[in-house]
Amino acid sequence: MSEKKKLKNPLSLQIDPDLFREATEEEKKQQVTMRESISFMRDALRRLRKNKIAMISLFVIIIIALIAFIVPTFYPYTYTKQDVTAQNLGPFQYSAKEQMKIDKGISVFPHIMGTDNLGRDYAIRVIYGTRISLLVGIFSALIVIIIGIFYGSISGFFGGKVDMVMMRIVDIIYSLPDVLIVILLSVAIKDWVSTSKSELIARLGAGMVSIFIVFGLLYWVSMARQVRGQVLSIKQQEYVLASRAIGASPARIIRKHMIPNCVSVIIIIAAMQIPSAIFTESFLSFLGLGVSVPMPSLGSLASEARTALRSYPYQLIFPALAIFLIVLSFNLLGNGLRDAFDPKLRN
Amino acid sequence: MNAKFLRYLVKRLLMALLTIFLVIAITFFVMHAIPASPFSSEKAKSDAVIAALEAKYGFDKPVTVQFFNYLRNILKGDFGLSTGWVGNTVAELIMGGFSYSARIGFTAAFFAIILGVIFGSVAALRRDRLLDKVIQIVTTALVSMPSFVMATLLLLVFALQLGWLPSLGNQPGGLVLPIISLALYPMAYVTRLQRSSMLDVLGQDYIRTARAKGVRNSKLIFKHALKNTLTPVITYAGPMMAYILTGSMVVENIFSVPGLGRLFTNSMLRTDYMMIMGVTIFLATMIILMNFLSDILYKVIDPRIDLG
Lengths: 347, 308
Hints:
Chain A is an all-alpha fold and 347 residues long. Chain A has 15 helices and no strands. Chain B has a domain at 97-270: MetI-like fold, CATH 1.10.3720.
């Protein structure tokens, strides 16, 4: 028996140094960073990146946006240019006049989606319609975000009587039938716009102006409700109490603690707002209350296509496909964002 | 029926009445803010004629007086006279249109709920299998399609290309396509709601207990699970009503059904302000009442919900 063994008493705290060996470089490194600490935001974005469907939808949205905003800058046709010799052409068809030019060796840009009953190139009209849809979606989300956060955080932060009154107002607005109010306002504003001298309003059209007004008046309520709920629960947290004890102003607490913690709710609701806004705009344009002619919208294009549906079905198919693709991508991206940002679903 | 429930009922009813009042007020004042007189758009008339017409319809009185007159008349069921369909009252026109819209709307709602619940339950029970995936893909596509796209595509394919169904609402079988176009979106929505709610319920302890006790699968689903999955569907009843009523404006125009929606768009074309106001208030009241009913039903069915 060696001396060492004798020394060792099972109850002693003496440690046998011979049992230790030096750590390898790799092991040392492991000690330094076991696991990278990541913020909630980055974690959510990582989860979003793993979601194939959401990423494909995002990709499709980016492609559509690029087409909608870049193609009109170099496209040879404009959405207003009429050509009576080229009415109701099918996709990639040429009018007799254009055919003559081609025969002479002059290149003519093809009508990718044909032309409409006034001889306007249909592809550029669909592209402009897509642009309107995207703009409506994004601006409505912005309006909803700004008003909803402002209203919801104030209501939740102050609580008590202020909260009660503000939430009653939200309840009432919430129960108003929004689409009917939009239609009503567009009817009224249409009349007002036709007499107004502002060029911007005239260009946007009654429907657009009323859509934005109504989003500003009505659509922010679900955002305000969610933000308020979130703020109410964050208010109870100890770190908020601590910062209040140090003397932080309400504005600072809202900015530094409330809003960052509301980000997931805000992103989810804003993402769901976009497709519903696009729906509403196309619906109004279909009824003839949207953008003013000659500016096309996907809804008004589909509406005009009805007059010659049997002969020229593609005039319906193209705008229908465009709006379907846009809404579908935003819906799928919204689902992906919800899965990525909803802490309740986190494993 | 306990006191707490009764208090909730009264509170909710007052809220609904207040909302209806607000809709009437908004409608009235928005329409009266329009600078043009409803008569000025028609062929050139002398100022005296316009003044006489305005006096006939009571447009020469102060706005607040007009408002309370209007309110009082509505309570009596009198929505005023139509200026676009001269000789008709707004109430008559609304009731005439509503008989069509109600038939289409309620049939669509009925099928949307029944089929939605069936498809949603089937998808949940076959979770992650092929059938579930097919149902999910189809419903995702359907909820991304605006009503006018759905209706015009159905018209194009089934009426114009295949010729299976008539394209006009007044032909025999002509209401089939409008009903389908209105039902598809809510059906897809109900399917998705029902699927997630069924998955939720199937994961609960009492279902596992029942299964452990040897309850047959069919009894387990119909007796134990199904009832508890229906609450989300009930809360959707109000929004569904709103979707169907506003969707009918588009669908009735596409299929030429002489319902409320078509009446509404036509009254916009004829700048018939009394009609626009009447239809807006009527539709809004329907939607608000439906929301009220679904809220009440929700509390009746699920007593666990806090009445607050």
